Amino acid sequence: MDHLACFSPDDLRSKPALLEGQRWRLLAQGDSWFSVAAAQAHGSLLQELMFKQPAVAVNCAGSGDALSHMVDLESAPEFVRLLTAADAPVWDGILLSVGGNDVIAAAQTPAHLEDGSAVPLEKRLLRRQTEWGPPSAGVARYFSEPGWATFAEYLKTNLRHLLTLREQGPSAGKPIFLHCYAVPLPRPAAASDGRGPWLYPTLKAYAVPAADWLAVSRLMVMHLAQLLKSLAADKENFPGLHVFDSTAVPLALAAPGSTGISGDWHNEIHLNHSGSFKIGRAWSDAIDAVFNKPVKPPPAPGRRGAASAA
Prior knowledge:
Layout: E1 2-3, E2 5-7, H1 9-14, E3 24-30, E4 50-51, E5 55-59, H2 77-84, E6 93-97, H3 100-107, H4 145-168, E7 176-179, H5 199-205, H6 213-233, E8 241-244, H7 273-291, H8 306-309
Parallel strand pairs: 2-5, 3-5, 3-6, 6-7, 7-8
Antiparallel strand pairs: 1-4
């Protein structure tokens, strides 16, 4: 097993031969789970991928604002160029880390704007206390299904656009690999660059009881996982999309109220190296299975008229 070798687009420009001799050549783009920027001290999922044959990835994941809304490809011109340009390499697959930061950003949408006007339910993921459903609904009482419908359509639209871009370039028809996310415990643990925490202040602002924070976090992560898996199952509209269910990988939760590295987590929403190792190894096996899937031979021609006779 070999670690995935990761390079930047700048590396590729200066050393185009770095793709030579590799069995699998991958293009990567994503949110902070893929970032290897110096400011991101947490583990990178890409660096924990391992394959049975030599593999290399050109990673376009950046840092800062570009990570907040990854599926908005306007913020990723380098990735789009390497996917669509006529002289771009032919990639064996595309690795994506999408939706996680987008869900966090959607959850952070406040109930009211600065001028005091209310934000409609269809534009946020959480409900104000006066909008909560009955206790019998469980933690779903805090969740805005109209807001989720808006978010789901946003994500689907951008992934359809991504597939269209794939078909425009030299890598048409190549597989696109996505992962789901793990369930973070909302807690006051910011990133080393001062960003965050993310869910902790949001759930406090919406007055969600602390005893329900983890369950609300799980609800949002599971909604995203189910959405991504449903798109991968829709082979007609999302051909070549492969989704790995990271929620099935057992991870150690962070301790409630902890402010730093705890369990398999570096901060509130990012994995540390042990967490990335666990998910990365499992995802690697799933990707390898797609790459090494036996090709079915074409059916043998039957006798003329055999089908009608049957």
